[in-house]
Fold this sequence. Notes:
Helix 2 runs parallel beside helix 3. Helices cover about 40% and strands about 20% of the residues. It is globular. The protein has a single domain (about 5-115), classed as Nucleotidyltransferase, domain 5 (2-Layer Sandwich). It is built from three helices and four strands; from the N terminus they run αβββαβα. The protein has helices at about 5-20, 70-85, 105-115, and strands at about 30-35, 40-45, 50-55, 90-95. It is α+β, with helices and mostly antiparallel strands. A hairpin with a 4-residue loop joins strand 1 and strand 2 (about 40-45). Belongs to the universal ribosomal protein uL18 family. One of its GO terms (cellular component) is cytosolic large ribosomal subunit.
Amino acid sequence: MQASRLKNTRRTRRKxxxxxxxxxxxxxxxxxxxxxxxxxxxxxxxxxxGKTLAxxxxxxxxxDNGATVEAAKQIGNKVxxxxxxxxxxxxxxxxxxxxxxxxxxxxxxxxxxxxxSF
Length: 118
């Protein structure tokens, strides 16, 4: 098996284990993070209705280099502001199978500083 496919398979298995325990409700929606090699994406999702309540990404923010820790911090602030605007204060953090360091941690810390609690 190729290294990239094996890496994706492992992340998918970790993701399934995390999602088994996490469920976004109207009171406490799920803040999910996805990082690619070029960009960082964050969404606040209510799983009971299947709707995205707030979102932010380095693509939508038109950041030149969306794959940096600084870009992740900006996206964390933007998603926190969008969630606050939608009336959301508490979320369940879904790291989506990624390790909690680097860009994922920077986004989470910035979202906490922006007023979200998790």
